[in-house]
Amino acid sequence: MMRKTVFMKKGLLPVFLLLAHAVFAQFHLGVFAGGANYIGDLNDKPYKRTKPAVGLSLNYEVSDRVMLRSGLMLGRVEGGDAFSGSTFLKQNRNLRFQSGITEFNLLGEITAFNLYNIRWSPYAFAGIAVYHFNPYVTDSAGGKVFLQPLGTEGQGLTSYPDRKPYALTQLAIPFGGGIKYNVNDNIRLGLEVGMRRLFTDYLDDVSTTYADEAALLAAKGPVAVRYAYRGGEVPGETTTYPDAGYPTKDASRGNAKTNDWYYFTGLHLTFRLGGGYGKTDASGKKSGYGCPSNPM
């Protein structure tokens, strides 16, 4: 009886290891390197002021064409009227900002073709993300001045009950796509663009009209007033703070009708965990259209 039990244990062990390896092999570790950009009130052109972005991902292979991706993305975004092609905006606002972005995401990814049968395929992804941002400017001494506590548009003031302080950690809807190349069955390289739909217009600390100067000064102090309107820093421009509301459409502080966006563009390289990274039998010699060559 004892010999039978030992045999069963010895027989189950290889099965367990085989199953563990099979499950483990469904996971792919990914690294991302590229750039980060934002779209909002202080950026008038895509891909302007691109800043570095990096990331790590853990991918689970649900099927030959479907992946679940969880990832951490780190980047920085920047914008400003000084970089705009509009002289009008430079003279009337002269606003700018920078912000780090830390994002955790969960995505579903699908490829158009089976990458075990073809070298390349378009792919798309979408999901949900939690991100943290904190817009700031740099003062004359090189120090960071964080804008959210200043309430530059009257957020948190009793005279503006509809303007609440914006949260620095929020949800976003990530989606995008690209082209993926199958180096072999264990290594894949994707070139992708990932957009982030935000639920705030304050990624850049700019959204609507100017707050009343006296109310802002009394509640938040002179630093808040200084960074709410910076037109006076432009040579020849008036130092007069704009009237509260500043109703002229083209001269308002921001456009409250549209929220901000940020996005990542770059390369996403994935490695199957527990796999060998040489050429595999499953890869074969594939044609560009996914047909393995038939050696004669």
Low-confidence stretches: 15-23, 277-284, 292-296
**Content-based structural category:** mainly beta
Neighbour order of strands in the largest sheet? 1-2-3-4-5-8-9-10
Amino- and carboxy-terminal Cα gap: 55 Å
**What's the number of helices?**
4
Order of helices and strands: HEEEHEEEEEEHHE
Assembly type of the chains comes to: single chain
Share of residues in strands: 35-45%
Give the rounded overall mean pLDDT. Answer: 84
Q: Which percent bin holds the helix content?
A: 10-25%
Topology:
Blueprint: H1 2-24, E1 27-39, E2 51-61, E3 66-80, H2 87-92, E4 96-111, E5 120-132, E6 136-138, E7 144-146, E8 169-184, E9 187-198, H3 213-220, H4 222-228, E10 261-272
Helix pairs in contact: 3-4
Task: Explain what this protein looks like in three dimensions.
By secondary structure, the chain is mostly beta strands. The chain has four helices and ten strands, in the order αβββαββββββααβ. Strands 1-2-3-4-5-8-9-10 form an eight-stranded antiparallel beta barrel. Strands 6-7 form a two-stranded antiparallel ribbon. α3 packs across α4. The protein starts with a helix and ends in a 24-residue tail after the last strand. Residues 15-23, 277-284 and 292-296 have low confidence and may be disordered.
Question: Which structural traits does this protein have?
Answer:
two-stranded antiparallel ribbon; 4 helices; eight-stranded antiparallel beta barrel; elongated; 296 residues; mainly beta; 15% helix; 39% strand; disordered C terminus
Quick summary of this structure?
The protein is mostly beta strands and 296 residues long. It has helices spanning 2-24, 87-92, 213-220, 222-228, and strands at 27-39, 51-61, 66-80, 96-111, 120-132, 136-138, 144-146, 169-184, 187-198, 261-272.
